[in-house]
Amino acid sequence: MAKGKRYLSWLTVGFLLAELLVVLSLAVCCLLASRQEAWQMMLTITLAVQIGLIVLFYFWVVRPYRRAERMIGLFLDGYSFASLDSSAGLSPVTERLVGFVKQELSANRLLKLSKRQAQYRALQNQINPHFLYNTLESIRSEALVAGLSSVAEMTEALAVFFRYTISKVENLVTVEEELQNCETYFRIQQYRFGPRLRLNIECAPEDRAEIYRCRIPKLTLQPILENGIIHGTEFKIGAGKLTVRLERTDKLLTIVVADDGVGMDEHTLSHLNERLDQSGRAFQEDKEEQGGGVALVNVNNRIHLLFGEQYGLHVFSIPMAGTDVRITLPMIQSNRELPQGEVFP
Question: Residues 180-204: pLDDT tens digits?
Fold first, then answer.
């Protein structure tokens, strides 16, 4: 049997033997003690030894077991081993188990698994993109012939949006491409909401060229815009405004997607941010938010898988004032700069 496999068992047996020796020693002292003072001294020593053994048993057996139990509980709640104290006080076999799980659930491995899952789903639900584009183009042509310019424009915008979404689903894209897709999506939404919906994109002129060349995961911004419309501005009386603010430092790209909708209460906000902080849980459960689109937790999880858990989404909101979703990403301008070392075609 491998070394350390009976770590807890041998410790328990050792302490039981020590307790037995203490009891035997106490019995012998009772038989041999001829004076009351000697009996009291031996009793005091025996009690002190027993208390010491109990303390050692707690620190060497009970506390490490409870620490391991707590760590596994946090892992089951969605926290990664990288963010936990995964080695302090654990038995050798438990440390081996933690190391194995870390290796199996590394960012690169999860990324490859998610890519395979995406490829399988794409095959399972595959449609012919060219057939879709050609059909939309036919609808657009018929609309133009009939003089329905708004239908033609909507169909064209929908074709552009689908082309961006369906084609090359695994690639990183530039910020400029992602913003263009957001504007296309917004054009489609304006046919529904009309002038009561506005979109502003804010970026310092001196940083624009550098920021627009940065590469981010495809469909990072559009799902957040969709979430802001469906859960924010749609329920607001009057006009609504969505704002995309882009800022940079030497190493970080920060994008804030803000809406002036109905916002959310403190409990809902806290629960959402807690889910966003629990990397990997959303991927395992494969959950999506109601209302359509890619869920915020899935966007956040893709960022974690690609770049690491120090990046991702955080939400700020005030009831009846609006919601801000802050996205923190590394400043990279090439796929080969991915922190996790994953290179995309």
Answer: 999 999 988 888 888 889 999 999 9
